[in-house]
Write a structure and sequence with these properties.
Blueprint: E1 17-19, E2 28-30, H1 38-43, H2 50-62, H3 106-191
Antiparallel strand pairs: 1-2
Length: 193
């Protein structure tokens, strides 16, 4: 398991970790927590953490260094390559660095989860509504087809009904004629006797 940053106490990605090379120390930091930029971070081979640098400088001071400049962690020359002559100012503790903005509060995490859930629910509902619309459209098409079939059958039934009436009328008329002919035939037979 990775140990947390000795500065901000948050987890350190291996690509952002710098470790104190002092044999008795071994503390780990985010390179941004000790005010190193990416270039200087990549160039560091023998790097001392702020605590070890202070100890080192206090030993030098005790041995006769007359420099009364207060030690500033961010501007300590041990943090920089000898070829660099750059003063790095320490950022305010409350301002998050741009490379550590992946740390979010619980409220922000809850809001992100809420947004994601809304998005997933909205997408799922949209898919379901689209499927329902397709099914309704298919149902409407089926009903239209059934209605057209019903209309065609109704038309055929009406035609057949009309034909039946005509046949019935014709049948009554022909039955009457047959009776008349039978009566005439019967009369002709009686007169012929």
């Amino acid at each position: 398991m990775n140990s947390p940053c000795s500065g901000c106490k948050k987890a350190i990605k291996p690509s952002e970790r710098i470790t104190c090379t002092q044999s008795s120390c071994g503390k780990r930091y985010h390179y941004l927590c000790v005010n190193l930029n990416v270039d200087n971070f990549k160039k560091q081979k023998n790097w001392k953490c702020p605590d070890c640098s202070i100890k080192y400088l206090s030993i030098i001071r005790k041995e006769g260094n007359s420099d009364d400049t207060p030690i500033k962690l961010a501007t300590c020359s041990e943090f920089l390559d000898d070829s660099q002559n750059i003063t790095i100012r320490r950022q305010k503790e409350s301002e998050p660095t741009t490379e550590h903005q992946d740390c979010v509060s619980r409220a922000e995490l809850a809001e992100i989860i809420r947004r994601e859930l809304r998005s997933v629910i909205r997408d799922t509902l949209n898919e379901e509504f689209a499927n329902i619309e397709k099914e309704i459209h298919a149902f409407e098409e089926t009903i239209k087809f059934i209605n057209s079939q019903y209309d065609a059958i109704s038309t055929k039934v009406k035609v057949l009904s009309d034909d039946t009436k005509i046949f019935s009328t014709t049948n009554v008329m022909l039955t009457g004629k047959v009776r008349d002919l039978e009566e005439r035939l019967s009369q002709m037979e009686q007169s012929a006797r």
